[in-house]
Fold:
Amino acid sequence: MKLSSLAASLLASAIVLFSAAAHAAEINLLNVSYDPTRELYQEYNAAFAEYWKAKTGDDVVVKQSHGGSGKQGRAIIDGLEADVATLALAADIDALYTKAELIPADWQKRLKLNSSPYTSTIVFLVRKGNPKHIKDWGDLVKPGVAVVTPNPKTSGGARWNYLAAYGYALKHNNGDHAKAQAFIKKLFENVPVLDSGARGSLTTFTERGIGDVFLSWENEAFLATTSLGPDKFDIVVPSLSILAEPPVTVVDKNVDRHGTRAVATAYLEYLYSPVAQEIAAKNYYRPTDAKVAKKYAKQFPKVKTLVTIDGEFGGWAKAQKEHFADGGVFDQIYSKK
Amino acid sequence: MSSFKAHSVLPGFNLALGFTLLYLSLIVLIPLSALFVNTASIGLGGFWDVVTGDRVLASLKVTFTASFAAAVANAFFGLVVAWVLVRYRFPGKRIIDALVDLPFALPTAVAGIVLATLYAPNGWLGQYFAELGIKAAYTPLGIVIALTFIGLPFVVRTVQPVLEDVEAEVEEAAASLGAGRWDVFRRVIFPAVAPALLTGFSLAFARAIGEYGSVIFIAGNMPFISEITPLLIVAKLEQYDYAGATAIALAMLLISFILMLTINAIQWWASRREAR
Structure:
């Protein structure tokens, strides 16, 4: 089951440690990321180290830190010495500017494609054979369907879930926000458990047997079907979903103090290279490189409509304030009881 | 001054008091005052708005009722466990004695995951509950289960030494004077252990109020139903709302402090009555 991937990751980290011990002159980087990217960056770090060694002759060791996206953002604000931040959504990186001015306001313009080298989307994970016949968002509000999602207040992934559902409701009600909110309210009435993070919810759904459908990052859904058994779960792709762009940035104040700006910037830029894009695709993140995307086109199911946070919701700052801040739409769902 | 600083045959009062104050300041008072300072940034009005919010009030109710229920359960069963451990000899007693401390040693998150696995509708125990139509995990009952688990050692470990001091001869004397079993318990044993029991109860209660790790895995975390206050604090932090988070923390602290004072007052009153 999961053991083989655990063993592989242990081996990988042992190799990293060993090579760190073998060479004295080396550069250390700390990449602070969110939960599901663990496997992705393990593989990528090795590839980057090889690339950097060939290019400059220096050894680079990248350490990883993973956790809920909001928690990781707060850790950096509170002094975690991250050289690069690779979080689940732009709002959490925005906070690095608004709360602590660790990065400039226009950080997202510094790298290509909104600083999002890979993307993902939200899909449904259902029990094998899809016994409740869940095909699209509209099926989630039916009576008797239990939906598992983490709490949007504490989970970045859950915010994407929520916005995807909201986008669907807007489209099917001709942009009527009141009706979209009523839809979301009905959806959350079908949620029996609100875990605080995506991995917690995945456990609730897969191990505890709670719920008929789990709203999931596409890469997590793939991981669940491949490593927890293809005979247990199916992936259902809704007619509309959201293009999730997990962005990356150099943490300016930290790299300037560490003297690692050049290598940290190269680390992020190399994410756009074909090599890195292949690694992303192998870990079920959607590559942005056209060639690699074409090569892996079969792997990723086609979503009919992909809305974006900028196009549909006016960017993260606005969406965050309208929907998830205290007293926002999400709070109203639970207060109008 | 002389009444304040009574003469003692033991030397070193000044040094010891100075050290005590310094230590308490570093460990307790400075962090607590930081809480007040952080909250001060939103003012009294802001503080009041945060802590009287619907969800905050509902979560306080969940937290304090669940903690109280768990502490009551622990007071009862903890007394029984302590009694068995003190009064009887049986094989494996040492092991059982050590088991009592396990909730102390286990990381709370591990406890939460284990309990959720057990009590989930498809878990070992949860399936039998489900047959009876009782949902344990992901309801307030789940919270009480988790809090009972983590609070058990407090009652056992405070009551145990006191029970050991109550000599079996006293009970035998009472019995030989014609007291029934219930009378012996009510008149002899209970008054002796009551203060320790109350201390254990209040420790378990206080511990339960602040518990986060084990609860979130089993609570289900539904707003207004099974959402505990510490989770709301974390939720506020996730939104980078430091002042709001500390405001709720401060409210919890004040309520807990008042409760602890009340329990202490009851204890003091009981011990005076006892002395007369």
About this structure: Chain B touches chain A at residues 53-55, 116-117, 120-123, 137-138, 216-217, 220-224, 231, 234-241, 244 (CB under 8 Å). The first helix of chain B runs from residue 13 to 40.
